Amino acid sequence: SDHMENIYGYLMKYTNLVTGWQYRFFVLNNDAGLLEYFVNEQSRHLKPRGTLQLAGAVISPSDEDSHTFTVNAASGEQYKLRATDAKERQHWVSRLQICTQHHTEAIGKNNPPLKSRSFSLASQGSCNSPGVQRRPSQNAISFFNVGHHRLSSGKRVPILQPDHLVDVREMMSQAEGQQRDLIRSIECLPVSGHLTSLDQDLLMLKATSMATMNCLNDCFHILQLQHASQQKGSLPAGTTISWLEPKISLSNHFKNGAAQSFSAEINKPASVREEQSVSEPGQLTREAEEINPDEELEDISDDKEDDLGAVEEQRSIILHLLSQLKLGMDLTRVVLPTFILEKRSLLEMYADFMSHPDLFLAITNGSSPEERMIRFVEYYLTSFHEGRKGAIAKKPYNPIIGETFHCSWRMPKSEVVADTGSNLSAPSSSEQGTLAKDVEGQTELDYYTVKFVAEQVSHHPPVSGFYAECVERKMCVNAHVWTKSKFLGMSIGVTMVGEGLLSLLEHGEEYTFSLPCAYARSILTVPWVELGGKVNINCAKTGYSASINFHTKPFYGGKLHRVTGEVKQNATNTVVCRVQGEWNSVLEFTYSSGDTKCVDLTKLSVTRKRVRPLEKQGPFESRRLWQHVTESLRDGDIDKATEHKRALEERQRNEERLRAETETPWCTKYFLKEGDGWVYHKPLWKTLSTVQAQQVDNN
């Protein structure tokens, strides 16, 4: 090929957490199919510092930025690289992919598929499962040859036939079953003795067999996309694509239509069938639904996550998971074991950050810009304690795309801290009547209502949008968060990428803020959570800002969960408030006047949120969507919870695949894309403007 020239140059290579990124001189050796690197160009004549075989490798541009990409070798070794700009990255990625394809095809031609082999694992201990065998198939050769065509000028690539893919799917299902049997056989071995379930070779066998099946599923997906592109436009809308997933029709989750019942699903539990298929036509519209707070009832569930039993009992699963991970690896697509899950969705966790609505509502009552900024910082720092359920580091459910969560809080007006002397204008009677929609003759309510809605607006990358408002106090908050998780050895780090915006419409002020990183520490013993990183809060109109540092515990000494911060007036660079303490214990605020205030977070009153009963929730509202997983976790039935969780995830994958093949864009329900962020479709600053404009017209 004309593009098969050797290329070389400097790239940045990620080394480790301590050293970070370093410049290295890379050489692409097309003849040998090698990517080599040296300390610098002058040492090029010496032995390379590192070498990757490109045959069978995967070259992946990163979604972190436009400069980074990874080279994942078939051996499992990975290089994370960064070019100087997007153009240079594209140059390297395209040349690496061409070289990789050439040498991978060469291996395929020189090494025909192996004959079927049988293998067995001697069962030891309490399980007497038979040896696992791979059954020969008449279609084995056609399976390995499907889609493997040598491109040449003047020859047309044969079109894949649907029955080929059905055969492949059947064989892969058999292989998946055999792989599961292998895993069970290993896990049934005793934990002590000559050959144990924690044997390093067996853990590696579990990891590699799982990785192999994942790779085969990815390849099968590519074949499906190839066939779909060749048949594009030949299928009428609504057609059941039998070769893709037998007896699964286009999902109502992205296209309204009649629900189907499938005979192939009869043997599954009813709850699993409900999760894998889409029921209740008419309720799955993407039209935004107005939730009536009067239908919501005070939440009585109390799912504290203090149980260590499951973690102790599932140590082998944790070790198996660790055997698959590498330092710095993105965990977004890694399926984590069910027993480490909290009994709530990530969307509900964001709602639990609002568990002190009295402090939230008190922000707008501040008599000056300085006091309002300080009150916001006080509320911000008290929100994380209740957002965590217990001291144990467990993970909330990953929301599926289109999942929503609604709730509200009722806060007695007498319990909200008033202003300190300002004569802020209360809403007029006409505004109260229009906005609160009070029934004629009803006495004024003695409580404020804070409404909350969250939606999973994207799956890859995983982005959530959430919005809360109090119409009576003319304040609202809008935020979007992209959760990026990384494996850090004995801990897991989660970066919360995104931004929030608090609007105090009564004052015409907007406060932008970010969120700290979260870390799950000591994942092999007693996992616990700590927050880390620097966050900023800014109000452009008033010129006040806050800088808050969440300190991670040093290796030797130091306190846990420490936080420090300061509020300053930017124009004069004057610090007006300092804060120190622990974000889950006691915070001490020191003001410019010399006064101090201590807040014991463990003694703060928590206002329970109000949620509609399950029977009134839509099928994609968090609690109803995950109800069978939650019930199984409460009952301690991890296997059943895993089965329900897998059904939900499989449905999401099927729907995503179908949308891609039919080129059907995903439509969000409550949030709209604006630039790099997501904004609620009816924010209070728009609805208030509309109401005020109507009042002007009426006058």
UniProtKB/TrEMBL annotation:
<protein>
    <recommendedName>
        <fullName>Oxysterol-binding protein</fullName>
    </recommendedName>
</protein>
<feature type="compositionally biased region" description="Acidic residues">
    <location>
        <begin position="290"/>
        <end position="302"/>
    </location>
</feature>
<feature type="domain" description="PH">
    <location>
        <begin position="4"/>
        <end position="101"/>
    </location>
</feature>
<keyword id="KW-0967">Endosome</keyword>
<comment type="function">
    <text>Plays a role in regulating ADIPOQ and FABP4 levels in differentiating adipocytes and is also involved in regulation of adipocyte triglyceride storage. Weakly binds 25-hydroxycholesterol. Interacts with OSBPL9 to function as lipid transfer proteins.</text>
</comment>
<comment type="similarity">
    <text>Belongs to the OSBP family.</text>
</comment>
<keyword id="KW-0007">Acetylation</keyword>
<dbReference type="InterPro" id="IPR011993">
    <property type="entry name" value="PH-like_dom_sf"/>
</dbReference>
<dbReference type="InterPro" id="IPR018494">
    <property type="entry name" value="Oxysterol-bd_CS"/>
</dbReference>
<keyword id="KW-0813">Transport</keyword>
<dbReference type="InterPro" id="IPR001849">
    <property type="entry name" value="PH_domain"/>
</dbReference>
<dbReference type="GO" id="GO:0005794">
    <property type="term" value="C:Golgi apparatus"/>
</dbReference>
<dbReference type="GO" id="GO:0006869">
    <property type="term" value="P:lipid transport"/>
</dbReference>
<keyword id="KW-0597">Phosphoprotein</keyword>
<comment type="subunit">
    <text>Heterodimer with OSBPL9.</text>
</comment>
<keyword id="KW-0446">Lipid-binding</keyword>
<keyword id="KW-0472">Membrane</keyword>
<dbReference type="GO" id="GO:0005829">
    <property type="term" value="C:cytosol"/>
</dbReference>
<dbReference type="Pfam" id="PF00169">
    <property type="entry name" value="PH"/>
</dbReference>
<keyword id="KW-0445">Lipid transport</keyword>
<feature type="region of interest" description="Disordered">
    <location>
        <begin position="638"/>
        <end position="658"/>
    </location>
</feature>
<feature type="region of interest" description="Disordered">
    <location>
        <begin position="269"/>
        <end position="302"/>
    </location>
</feature>
<dbReference type="InterPro" id="IPR037239">
    <property type="entry name" value="OSBP_sf"/>
</dbReference>
<dbReference type="InterPro" id="IPR000648">
    <property type="entry name" value="Oxysterol-bd"/>
</dbReference>
<dbReference type="Pfam" id="PF01237">
    <property type="entry name" value="Oxysterol_BP"/>
</dbReference>
<dbReference type="GO" id="GO:0031902">
    <property type="term" value="C:late endosome membrane"/>
</dbReference>
<keyword id="KW-0333">Golgi apparatus</keyword>
<dbReference type="GO" id="GO:0032934">
    <property type="term" value="F:sterol binding"/>
</dbReference>
